[in-house]
Write a structure and sequence with these properties.
This protein is α/β, with parallel strands linked by helices. About 35% of the residues lie in helices and about 20% in strands. The longest helix is centred in the N-terminal third of the chain and has 9 residues, at about 15-20.
Length: about 70
């Protein structure tokens, strides 16, 4: 069960987030040790710092779209 935290400055549309959930992922608002990815936009804040401290992989919208099934 993959957990993804979205940095709300990201431009990912809600349909992409639905695809994540339809494929067993979970989109959550806060970072924890259970988070697998941080979807980061242009303006990153404290979530980025926390993700790095916890060793969570930070991905871009482009990377996310490549990970999703077509």
């Amino acid at each position: 069960h993959t957990r993804l935290v979205r940095d709300w400055s990201s431009d990912v549309c809600s349909s992409d987030l639905e695809i994540i959930e339809d494929n067993g992922g979970k989109v959550v608002a806060s970072i924890s040790k259970n988070t697998d990815y941080l979807l980061s936009g242009e303006k990153t804040g404290t979530k980025l710092d926390k993700a790095k401290a916890l060793g969570i992989k930070v991905i871009s919208e482009q990377k996310l779209l490549k990970m999703l099934p077509q």
